[in-house]
Design brief:
119 residues; two-stranded antiparallel sheet; 5 helices; 67% helix; elongated
Length: 119
């Protein structure tokens, strides 16, 4: 209880500033996002395509889960940026063409007989 009172006293000047300047109060989600941002750091390792992500927290399990989900979302986002519908269509056409050629050749007799293979 004493900790909550101290935290409220510390926030009092900030609350007064917000009221004085008509700044809306942060929602709990916005406050959480600001807290996450303060504890999150990301950088690119020089001369590589590797991103180093660091998050500081007292809860190791939560931190691991958070970073796993963050990186999964980043990879989804990055994949959506590099997605090229024309390239996908080209590869689908090529796959269909080669598959049709393979199926047609499976019914054809081999150019070499068994005798030729054993020579």
């Amino acid at each position: 209880m004493a900790v909550a009172a101290v935290k409220a006293a510390i926030r009092l000047p900030l609350e007064g500033y917000h009221v004085l300047h008509s700044i809306p109060r942060l929602s709990p989600r916005d406050a959480w996002a600001i807290d996450v941002e303060r504890n999150l750091d990301a950088s690119v390792i020089k001369r590589s395509n590797i991103i180093e992500v660091e998050f500081r927290s007292h809860d190791r399990a939560w931190t691991k889960d958070f970073l796993d989900r963050l990186m999964a979302r980043y990879l989804e986002f990055h994949a959506s940026l590099s997605h090229d519908p024309q390239a996908e269509k080209f590869y689908e056409q090529q796959t269909s063409l080669l598959k049709a050629r393979l199926e047609a050749s499976e019914g054809q007799p081999s150019r070499f007989s068994d005798q030729d293979r054993h020579r």
